[in-house]
Amino acid sequence: MPRGQFYTVFTLGFAAAIALFGIAGACALLWWPPAAYWTAWAFGAPGKPLTWMTPTVFSFVVGSATLCLAYSLVTIQQALVRWSGDRLIAKLNRQYNMIAQLQGQEYADEFMRLQAQAMIEESEGKPFNVFGREKMLHAAAAAGVRLQPPT
Fold it and tell me: Distance (Å, rounded) from C-alpha 72 to C-alpha 32?
């Protein structure tokens, strides 16, 4: 699984969990009227309940806040993946232009085709480095630890 796809799936799952917990909390608050009075007290109106802060409004605010948080997480993650992809494309474009100037456009086309094929094969054949797996395996091998898959 390519790196960007893993981050997207991970972030979407995390954002969906936040949104579902927020909606579940909003539904629970909808049928829990003391929460409106606690909120009125928290907003600095002790003894005077806020007339507009009903349990319905409070549950709507809680549900909306969690949905906004989930949306902002996904938006930030997508911006980071897009930025990373744009950087890679710019790097490949610089390489292509340099090779095209030195060797010609046909050679540059073939080189880029082979490089793209190698990148795809590398991302498919190599396990994803989740939580520093490669560093951990390298450190274990350097320490003389033999790791075997369970049988």
Answer: 28
- Tell me which residue has tokens 């095209």: 100
Closest CA to 14 of 73, 56, 88, 76: 73
- Among 103, 138, 99, smallest CA distance to 115 is for 99
Each of the 151 residues of the chain gets a pLDDT tens digit; together they read 566 667 777 888 888 999 899 888 888 877 776 766 676 667 655 556 556 666 677 778 888 999 999 999 989 988 888 888 888 888 888 988 998 899 888 888 888 888 877 776 766 655 555 556 666 666 667 767 666 665 5
Cα angle, residue 104 at apex, residues 99 and 107 outer, rounded to 5°: 75
Tell me how many degrees the CA angle 97-100-103 measures, rounded to the nearest 5: 145
Q: Are 32 and 59 in contact (CB under 8 A)?
A: no
